[in-house]
Write a structure and sequence with these properties.
The structure is a single chain. With 99 residues, the protein is mainly alpha-helical. The protein has six helices and no strands. α2 (17-27) crosses α6 (82-98). The radius of gyration is 13 Å and the shape is globular.
Length: 99
């Protein structure tokens, strides 16, 4: 199955990848620039959720393919916090406002 293209889906409703990363800063998911961006983490989560095989290892592999850099499953696990939940809820809220 082809990867879900979050950027294309969000661009159709005028939400950019930069805006997604700004939202991550506002919600506390990202405090400073890291290897894993909020956009890439969300893209990987959506793709793996659609496939039904979400694990930290699969998320790391998906991000590695997007970024062409080495991300560990432990680094992904550290991002899966309450801040990620808050960020996702805020992103869903923004998407629903645009629909």
């Amino acid at each position: 199955m082809e990867n879900f293209n979050l950027e294309k889906a969000l661009n159709e409703i005028n939400i950019s990848a930069d805006y997604v990363n700004e939202l991550a800063n506002k919600t506390g998911l990202v405090k400073r620039k890291r290897k894993i961006t909020a956009f890439n983490l969300t893209q990987a989560s959506c793709t793996e959720s659609i496939l039904g095989i979400q694990s930290f290892n699969k998320l790391a592999i998906n991000i590695n393919e997007q970024e062409k850099q080495r991300i560990s499953k432990q680094a992904v696990a550290k991002k899966m916090t309450g801040a990620f939940d808050k960020f996702l809820l805020s992103l869903i809220e923004e998407v629903l406002k645009k629909l």
